[in-house]
Amino acid sequence: MSHDTNASATVQTSKDTGLSFGRVLQSPLVLPLAGLVVVSILMGIASENFFNISNIFNVLRQVSIIGILAVGMTFVILTGGIDLSVGAVMALAGTICAGLIVHMGMPGVVGLAGGLLVGLGFGLFNGALVAWGRMPAIIVTLATMGIARGLGLIYSGGYPISGLPSWISWFGIGRIGDVPVPVILMVIIYAVAWVLLQRTPFGRHVYAIGGNETAARLSGVKTQRIKLAIYAISGLTSAFAAVVLTGRLMSGQPNAGVGFELDAIAAVVLGGTAIAGGRGLILGTLIGAILLGILNNGLNLVGINPYLQDVIKGFIILLAIYIGREWR
Amino acid sequence: MLELNGIRKSFGKVEVLHGVNLDVRAGEVHALLGENGAGKSTLMKVLCGIIKASDGTIRIHGEDRRFANYDEAIAAGIGIVFQEFSLIPYLSAVENMFLAREIRTRLGFLDRKAMRRRARDILHRLGVDLPLTVPVASLSVAEQQFVEIAKALSLDARILILDEPTATLTPTEVERLFKVIRELRRNDVAIVFISHHLEEIFQICDRITVLRDGEYIGTCDVADVDNDRLVEMMVGRRIEQNFPPKPVLDPTAPPVLDVAEIQLKRGGPVSSFTLRKGEILGFAGLVGSGRTETVLALLGAHPAARCRMTLEGKAVRFSEPADGLAHGVGLLPENRKEKGLITSFAILPNISINNYGKYRKNQIFIDLRKELACTRDAMTQVRVKANSPRDRMDTLSGGNQQKVVLARWLNHDMKVLIFDEPTRGIDVGAKAEIYQLMRDLTARGCAIIMVSSELPEVLGVSDRVCVFRGGGIVATVDGDDLTSEKIMTYATTGKLENVA
């Protein structure tokens, strides 16, 4: 076999295959990580409680919902798309889940499965319209955002659905050891996403579509199926976020998650993923989500007026993206 | 009226215009003729100040001129109607004509009446009557062209360049356009008419200047030449590239791909062709003659009104290129950067993008070690010059980029590979390598379709050639008929008889 001759090279490179594909896409991580360190240090200076282990877990727990939504958003943005429906789909999934259990007397597991199916269904609907209907993602998901929100309000009459069995709260505020359950769920979802993106053909195809959809299609990638799948994933992660949210609030809230799609997009972009697609890492999104959470937490700890907090966050996002633009 | 002398233009180290002359008189229609890539468009861009000449002079009315940009050329009375119109589809003819130099009333509002009056005057002078206030998108292609011409005239153009104005027109529309051109000629406008269609040149033009490979070949009166003479001037004799020898093929070999019917548009021409095992079939024709659309339609990447074919005797129909891949039919698209490469990827994922079936572990995960080995193997086969499979695509030369696109298909058992303009923008050495790789593939039993706009390449590489014109195949030539004159004649006139 001829590769005996360069066996040493092959072995050597196979050692770093862990980052092989990431190598090209690695640089986007540097900046978010630097941002995370800088913001953490600033917060640590501003508030002595910041580096408390309990505060750190608290931040991560607060981050978990946006963090989970941002996973699906990362898949979508990597292909050059966008999903504005995630917040509304989350609210609908949570409402249906609670409704199935409370109103219809279903077992909790069935309720949870129902919520997940709602998320998946909306994702497939979005994906089918984008892939086969050839409609722009921003319009499709803007419309389905309205549809999901409206359906949730109709189903619940606009009121929260409470009276859930107490074990549901485990998903929102439970702990395993010291670690909050939502944080564990979030980490598992990120791990699965990482494997999908970095270790499967599907992941490569996602990047390929974002990099050059025409080239991917002409070389035999089934671009429409992949697009269907990524919107389905986004719908599914919205539903997972709904499970955490329902557990935390112990009710189905049809009005929850307004504007969460924007935070999820901000997390993805802060994490270094190109909004035009093709470049970015799921780990970056996690860092972006945590960065956003620390800002929220820190600004609260320092006691800044909540209205002013939004303004400050907005400017920080602009600054981060401006620096990122120079960097690339 | 207009005199260009010794125009040279280099892009980097490559000279594309080698001292070209052109002189156009007032009140004449002057044809600028040459193959794809002969330098016509570059010359016109120099004239319009869009690009700067490296050397040479431009004189207008005997006065030396040098244009720093397009606006200065317009101010000097030059108007150009590009192949791709620059009209804004949702604005009306009047709004388009006065875009960015609207006539205003004293209060600063648009003086729509004045603009409409001027527009009507100009169109009247052309002898054209068309709706002025509807969006130009709702006008016919010819009418849109008249709007472009009127726009140029409203800028007092005395020299008008028409870049392949008839390419997308129906015969009756061509007649209308010619009437307008004659009207312009009566008004002493100097017209440069670029067209590939020789019969039109005989119909409308007074004199002809021929370019070939950026070289000035000559200028003559239309009355003094015939069809054959023009083709000879366009094609000439040229320095031959070294092509690998053509193997002797068995003419009775069964076809790999037998396309019984392919029709791009309803009502358009219906073509058929066969591709035999181990053969390279050239697709020749002018730009826009339907070659690329045809190969894309075969793969289901471009709509087709009708497409009936058999692959190794079995009827197939591809609804997307992935189906083609599954059956062993693949494409190396024209325009590597836009359609071939994923530029955000390194070499490795660019090659392995459609290969994953080959080294999947447990059918779900990528076997990274095997992927790397397969990629290295493919890179060695096509001799990609790179330090590592993880090099970025933009560090590679055009030739190496093309080899990467080719390498993608080597891990498959391909029956048919389609090369669309495989050597565009790559240097001579890399071209020779690509040709050799194509022959290596055919020796392994693969059949190849090669779309090419370069005649020497078509002749040097293909075993047989299908000539396209107007969306379909007008002739298939092989053996002794494989001459540049014959192909060029078919491509420009659609038939062999003299048109003059």
Q: CATH topology of chain A, which one?
A: ABC transporter involved in vitamin B12 uptake, BtuC
Into which percentage range does the β-strand content of chain B fall? Answer: 15-25%
Q: What is the tally of helical segments of chain B? A: 17
What letter string, H or E per element, gives the SSE order of chain A?
HHHHHHHEHEEHHHHEHHH
Helix content of chain A: over 70%
Observed structural traits:
heterodimer; A: 328 residues; ABC transporter involved in vitamin B12 uptake, BtuC; two-stranded antiparallel sheet; 2% strand; B: 500 residues; alpha/beta; Rossmann fold; 6-stranded mixed beta sheet; 25% strand; membrane (chain B); ABC_transporter-like_ATP-bd (chain B); cell membrane (chain B); nucleotide-binding (chain B)
What's a quick, concise take on this entry?
Chain B: It is found in: Cell membrane. The complex is a heterodimer of chains A (328) and B (500). Chain A has 328 residues and is mostly helical.
Tell me about this structure.
The complex is a heterodimer of chains A (328) and B (500). Chain A has 328 residues and is an all-alpha fold. Chain A has a single domain (53-327), classed as ABC transporter involved in vitamin B12 uptake, BtuC, CATH 1.10.3470. Helices cover 74% and strands 2% of the residues of chain A. Chain A has 15 helices and four strands. A two-stranded antiparallel sheet of chain A has the order 1-4. A two-stranded antiparallel sheet of chain A has the order 2-3. The model of chain A is unreliable at 1-26 (pLDDT under 50). Chain B has 500 residues and is of the alpha/beta class. Chain B folds into three domains: 2-235, Rossmann fold, CATH 3.40.50; 247-328 and 413-500, 3-Layer(aba) Sandwich (Rossmann fold); 347-412, no CATH class. Chain B contains 17 helices and 22 strands. Chain B has helices spanning 40-47, 70-75, 93-97, 112-126, 141-154, 171-186, 198-204, 227-235, 291-298, 321-327, 336-340, 347-352, 368-382, 398-407, 428-443, 455-461, 484-493; strands at 2-11, 14-24, 29-33, 55-60, 63-65, 78-81, 159-163, 190-194, 207-212, 215-221, 255-263, 270-276, 280-285, 306-311, 314-316, 329-332, 360-361, 365-366, 416-420, 447-451, 464-469, 472-478. Chain B has a six-stranded mixed β-sheet, with helices on both faces. Classes of the chains: A mainly alpha (328), B alpha/beta (500). The A-B interface holds A 2-3, 6, 10, 13-14, 17, 20-21, 23-25, 195, 199-201, 204-205, 207-208, 210-212, 214-222, 224, 278-279 and B 299, 301, 320-322, 324-326, 330-331, 333, 338-346, 348-349, 352-354, 356, 360, 364-366, 368-369, 372-373, 376-377, 380, 388, 390, 392, 408.
